[in-house]
Amino acid sequence: MKSHILRNARLTRGDGDWVLVLERTLDHPLEDVFAALTEAEQVPSWAPFTTDRDLTATGVVGLSHIDMPEAEERQGKSCK
User: What pTM was computed for the model?
Assistant: First the structure.
């Protein structure tokens, strides 16, 4: 995917947590971008890990590193 990084990255702090927002303009249909970011079988094409489920809903997710077999599997915490 070709992307253009906007220069207006935002870093804020709310409820004790830091939030970094990076906006990108992608030259692809919204549905294709959403699928690439959320469907478990597509995530490894852009991220260095696999997921144990689709990322279309909040909740616990298992992440496994692709190129680091010595790294232990991590499980994310559930978002409210």
Answer: 0.60
